[in-house]
Amino acid sequence: GQQVQQSPTSLVLQEGENAELQCNFSTSLNSMQWFYQRPGGSLVSVFYNPSGTKQSGRLTSTTVIKERRSSLHISSSQITDSGTYLCAMERGQGGRALIFGTGTTVSVSP
Amino acid sequence: EAAVTQSPRNKVAVTGGKVTLSCNQTNNHNNMYWYRQDTGHGLRLIHYSYGAGSTEKGDIPDGYKASRPSQENFSLILELATPSQTSVYFCASGDGTGGGSDYTFGSGTRLLVI
């Protein structure tokens, strides 16, 4: 089954609203990352956060290893935040390839 | 600027035909990966490589082959394309050191098999 579960599947926000995206892992958490994907676009890393809390601008990521979960908080959302957010963790073996969640699609309207 | 470039960006193929997706990286990364992205599944690993001459099976390798003739180039080959292989394919490179390794993704190839 899916090793990485993300919720919600999609999110519609009014500009200025906050949002919380969740990621849960069925296996031991290893080198957790969050990626952002523009519609029809490539993926870019927004956070490498193996444990604890990290903040970058309006984005905050919190990873709790023993609970096998990570969250991404978007504060004061902007239209440019629209896109898909994917969490991923590294495999322990296998070329350190990433195991991805199914993604949360965020749509921010004015 | 270091990058991962995929070609073609879009491809329409006929069932049973051969399709080759190409990927070139200028990051000098040892590891390269091919993923496909489908609604409801996220990105799934097809093949990966540790370096020139190496190819390894990922989670969903059936129906796909890979080729890594050089450090820079990594191809994904569909010998007999099927409609179930319609998807968006992403190539990525990584330095393979773990712990937040630097990953760079290409812009994707949209493949439609009819």
Describe this structure in words.
In chain A, strands 2, 4, 5, 9, 10 and 11 form a 6-stranded mixed beta sheet that branches. In chain A, strands 1-3-8-7-6 form a 5-stranded antiparallel beta sheet, with no helix packed on it. Chain A is mostly beta strands. Chain A has strands spanning 4-7, 10-14, 19-25, 32-37, 43-48, 52-56, 59-64, 69-74, 83-90, 98-100, 104-109. Chain A is built from no helices and 11 strands. The mean pLDDT of chain B is 93. Helices cover 0% and strands 49% of the residues of chain B. Chain B is built from no helices and 11 strands.
How many beta-strand segments of chain A? 11
Percent of sequence in beta strands of chain A: over 45%
Oligomer: heterodimer
Strand percentage of chain B, roughly? over 45%
Q: Radius of gyration of chain A, rounded? A: 13 Å
Terminal CA distance of chain A reads 38 Å
Averaging pLDDT over every residue of chain A, what do you get? Answer: 90
The SS-based structural class of chain A is: mainly beta
- What is the radius of gyration of chain B computed over CA atoms, rounded to a whole number of angstroms? 13 Å
Structural topology:
The complex is a heterodimer of chains A (110) and B (114).
Chain A: E1 4-7, E2 10-14, E3 19-25, E4 32-37, E5 43-48, E6 52-56, E7 59-64, E8 69-74, E9 83-90, E10 98-100, E11 104-109
Parallel strand pairs in A: 2-11
Antiparallel strand pairs in A: 1-3, 3-8, 4-5, 4-9, 6-7, 7-8, 9-10, 9-11
Chain B: E1 4-7, E2 10-13, E3 19-25, E4 31-38, E5 42-49, E6 56-57, E7 65-67, E8 75-78, E9 87-94, E10 103-105, E11 109-113
Parallel strand pairs in B: 2-11
Antiparallel strand pairs in B: 1-3, 3-8, 4-5, 4-9, 5-6, 7-8, 9-10, 9-11
